[in-house]
Specification:
It comes from Huso huso (Beluga). The chain is mostly helical and 532 residues long. It is built from 29 helices and no strands.
Length: 532
Amino acid sequence: MASSQGTSHIPSLASPTQRMHLIHVDSVHRWMEDLRYMTEVECMCILQSKPISVDEDAQSELIINPEHTVRDNLQTLLKRALIISSELTKMFQKLEKNRWQRVHSTAVRANCHVRSLVNEYNSFTRNSPPEIQKYEKALLEKCMELTIITERCIHTEDEYFLMSMKDSIHEILTSVGESFSHMIDMALANEIQVLVRQIELSDNMYTIGTAISSLLGLTQEGAHLCRIIAKEGAVVALFKICRQDCFRCLCAHALRTLASICCVEEGISQLEKVDGILCLADILTDETNPEEMRAEAAAVVAQITSPHHTFTQHLGSFLENMEDIVTALIKLCQHASSGEVFLLASAALANITFFDTMASEILLQLSAVRILFEACRDRKRVDTPYSKDQVVTVLANISVLDHCASEVIQERGIECLLEMLFEKPSTSNPPEVAACERVQQKAAVTLARLSRDPVVAHTATKLNCIPRLIELCRSPTERSNSDSVLVACLAALRRLAAGCPESIDDSDFQQLIKPRLVDSFLLCSNMEESFV
């Protein structure tokens, strides 16, 4: 009998047809896309300083693709920049380990990629700005210096020399990284300016729409690019589109892009400067506007009022328009035609209740408790744990008001809150699991706050909220091992026990109610299995 070790390295053979089935079309397509960025090092070393042609027109024919769009240019820059950043990171790592051969080969690759990036960028800009040319020159010189120095290091075993070179290489690498970052930022800004000018100056719907799509795509590349987009005037240009009736069909698209840009402080600051809040209020309150447009405006409001931001203090004009915005948002929740529209409107409301406590008073006056509980019973509007998370966030924040309890009782809201305590993910998808945890936690928080009212405490006890809260405390799997759910449930349980002590068994009282909260928490958080 052959041992498993003897056969482990023998690949299984397959027929040509079977092998073809192993190749996924998307993977091949991705490989072909990436191939042009992964050049052969030896070839590039030979060609890097040799002109293809002295004839300018002939050279252009070989290098420039006439179909290049600004979006193509930006994607090319971003892909090449990612590769170069990766190579520089590898070089730092290899340098720390004194792996000189690897340091040199990585330096050669980085040098080739930098030259390719510079050539590519100059090919589609024809005449790059002087500031960029300055960084290009410095970057190319530093990369060549890096290649020469690292080559010297692989031809010696003198430890003293290598250690002295290590500091020099580290210094050059740092300089290369800084020059590279500056050059890429300016190149990206230069291309983004082209898109912004297209939005500002063109009267062609297709051209403007394509430019907006390109900006939206770039916002998905991360916060750093969003900052550049905001600084280059995109927020101003997009709000101009939103304010002109002739571009009404592009407004929703522009608002979606604005919501992405405003994930950074620079975007929100620009929005404030161009009276963006007033524009959003006008869009939301005009019920003749398409629902899609109002939903995208709600998304911008949700973004700029996010409690995760630490820089919302300068949104002074928001307070001036808050009542109109809140009124429009609760109406959008009430009449939403889909779960997506409801999610955007309710997310904006949830964030606003964190942003200013006056919003809770306004919502109570607008019968928000009734509207939100009605929505929870409508699967067309509230169809995911993400929507329920927004609803229960609003309820938790307005439940601090004394006169909220009577409305919750009137709308049979305790039943809905109990259902939320049973919220469970349908998949193991981490975002969905986290959303379900938030729903359970906030439902427990809302119950605890509302149970200050004896009528609420009695109703919750009568509906068997206490057994479910105990189960969540004692069974880690029921709460997806969430400590925040455990703390909220212990707090709610103690509040209900204070009003209805007879509804708690003695063993539960001794373990979950009588000890200090931290002791009960430690007891429950160490339980492996439920013993309810």
